[in-house]
Predict the structure.
Amino acid sequence: MLKRNRLAVSVAILMALLALIAIPGSSCSPSESELSIFAAAAAKPPLDEICQKFGEQCGIRLEVNYGGGGEVLSQMTLSKSGDVYIAPEQRFMEMAVEKQVIDPETINSMVYMIPAIAVQKGNPQNVVTLADLARPGIRVAVTRPETTLLGKYVPEIFEKAGLTEAIGNNIVTEAARPDSLLTMLVMGQVDAGIVWHFYQTQAPDQIEVIFLPPEQLTGIGEMQAAVSAYSQNKKSAQRFINFMTSAEGKTVFKKLGYLVDAEEVKQYWH
């Protein structure tokens, strides 16, 4: 009887494992032991943790190449390699589609990002509205429109508020990426800048963000992922994307300040 019970338990465990393998998006093929990810630097804090969790659960080693959204896209295109592309903003994913380096059917929006004013911790210049960026002596930093979607939105936001010239007179630098702008702000090289809102959560002891009224915005950012056209491990690549957008993956993103629910976005952007 004891042997029979043990056999029954063993069979039950085996059947459970087989069932798990059969569930799309939750399993990993033992023959696919490595994935190559080309990812925007803005995704690094959550992605490091997500990759660790996915690797531990699936036994797959993930090699992540970080850089600017356009930079890693170019690397992936030139090397004709990679399994997953993670774009910091939808503009770069559109470029990837045009270059035919990703499978457009696999594009998935993971998180949402809101343009906001960033100031040093304590807000020493007392910047509370967009109009405050036009005050004499306020040193403003923005991002470049040719390298970031945020940089495209900023002049639109200023124009919509009728402050293009007034704030333009205070712009002292244009950064290639939002994280570079953040560094300038922390080092005291500028007084304020327009960044994605989640940076406050990632540097709470150094900066503060001020959300703009929804009617002042002209758009938001969406961090997106897709399977590379060059991938030899498309099933595992898709499983990794599924993991990032699962409840477990979203918990990591949310912890680091990203918006993971489209409904939640509505309070910041209509």
In short: The CA atoms of residues 41 and 228 lie 18 Å apart. Confidence is low (pLDDT under 50) at residues 7-26.
